[in-house]
Specification:
Blueprint lengths: L4 H17 L10 H11 L1 E11 H12 L3 E3 L1 H6 L7 E10 H13 L5 E6 L2 E6 H5 L3 E6 L1 H18 L1 H13 L5 H17 L14 E5 L2 E6 L1 H16 L2
Parallel strand pairs: 2-5
Antiparallel strand pairs: 1-3, 4-5, 6-8, 7-8
Helix pairs in contact: 7-8, 7-9
Amino acid sequence: MRLTLWGIALLLSGIVAGVLLGHFFTKFDFPHRFASQQNRLDTRIDRVDFQNVPLSQVIERLNRDHSANLGVNWRTLESVGIDENTSIFVQTQGLPLRKVLDLVCADAGAGSVKLSYRADDGIIFLSTAEELARETTVHIYDVRGLITDDHDLRQRMHRLIDPRRWEQMAKARRENSPLSEEASDSIDALVVAITETIDPDSWRDAGGTTGSIREFGGRLIIIQTPEAHTQIASLLNRLEKGT
């Protein structure tokens, strides 16, 4: 995979921003602030009983009774035909807040509009999925360790299965390319693993409008939503640990 001039500029700006702001990730970990936001969404609610309750009252009750700290972009919702009086019918027991919100969003959208939410700075914002998808961030993931491990495994397999071809490839690597065929294959396989498991329809290369991914020097430069970045970091963590 080749990096365009845009990608090189993006890499340099990411490095500078990372040095200044501490957001240049060489590991696949996110700040504790994000973990606390996810903990809020994972809080279990004993009982929810919304029987044809206006959406504004649903939000009010979740904030009052369960400290959800929900905020709603009413202007955006109204533009797609959903307002404060939209009737909600959701009854649950013992579900985490995120599942309750999933049900509320599905009921409010009535199958015609997809609603979603995002936790940020202690507030959970509820809006259309389309609007939230426009809010993307750039993260740089150092995957050289994963590439090296996979590369080494491919080399051992080639050496055992086809020693002659392995010797030819080793000679070509020494004489020509700093990036071997196996290393390139490892990068491609990793990109496929990310784009086919993390919100597959969102990637621009697959016809989506949100995500993009480029490789440069063993690092993946990824533009995606915060939710997708969380899943990407989790996936890379699992791959690194072999779980």
